[in-house]
Fold UmuC domain-containing protein.
Amino acid sequence: MAGDTREVHQRDIGEPSNDDAQRVANEMRNQEPLLAMKLRTTHEDPEFMSTFFKASRLHFIGTWKARYQEILDSLPPPPALPPSHGCERLVFHIDMDCFFASVAVRGRPELANRPVAVCWGTSNNGSAEISSANYEARGFGIGAGMFIREARQRCPALVTVPYEFDKYSATAEDMYRTLFDFTPHVQGVSVDEAYADFTGMGEAGDLASKLRAAIKERTGGCCASIGSGPNRLIARLGTKRAKPDGHWHIAQAQAAACVAELPVSDLPVCHPPNDLHGLLYKSSWIVDLPAI
DNA sequence: ATCCTCCCCTAC
DNA sequence: TAAGGTAGGGGAGGAT
């Protein structure tokens, strides 16, 4: 079988096997106290509420702003945004690639080049929700929001690893401190995503490659993708095309043409189900919207 | 017209 | 077994 041949080949050249990767994932689970407890009621665990929030990825994401504020408080207050003098602004949208999964793979060579997904859940056919999947896993059609059961059907060799919230906080801080080294004009969006104004600081491609390299080094190997353009919306649309591990610039002059050929669903807030969802039936492409 | 409060919705 | 929280934008609708 082709798969067997590949395994033999990997062993020959000393690369970690799938077994090595699964063993590392098992060790991660074994060292996670939250998985050792397996306590589910207030009777079994008097600290049930606290345990629940400690294990919640949504709570982690939702309370990130408070931790970000501590970073802001440790820095001098940002100067006012300098005027652009009528020239177009250079706005960056920085977004870490599959953040939780890349933190998991970082420093664990056994997981490199393997399909990896982050979730609680130790059962192969459970309904634990995957919150981050690396690009190898996405190649099997695995993505955020999918239950572990379906992901395992699509890729039996998938490596599932538990959350490491403390590492996410520290890595996010590394990313933000790197960004603040470049400019004080930073707007934090979330734990793994920010906008920054680079107007008048140089050429977009050059700045982006320097910033991405600095983030990758400071975070120990986590990649950021960057979209850039004259405003936040255009920059953000550029990031979609930049991923993974890339940069895409959309200048003001190209912005209208670039955006026109995108599907309506690429716009923020235009994802069903919502109030604008009817538009998706009338038009799939942004270029057609003015005709509606 | 303007300013509120609530409430629904999105994104992360 | 799995860990669905949180902040902020914007519309509706009432009070001024």
Q: What stands out?
A: The first strand of chain A starts at residue 91 and ends at 96. The radius of gyration of chain A is 21 Å. The CA atoms of residues 227 and 237 of chain A lie 7 Å apart.
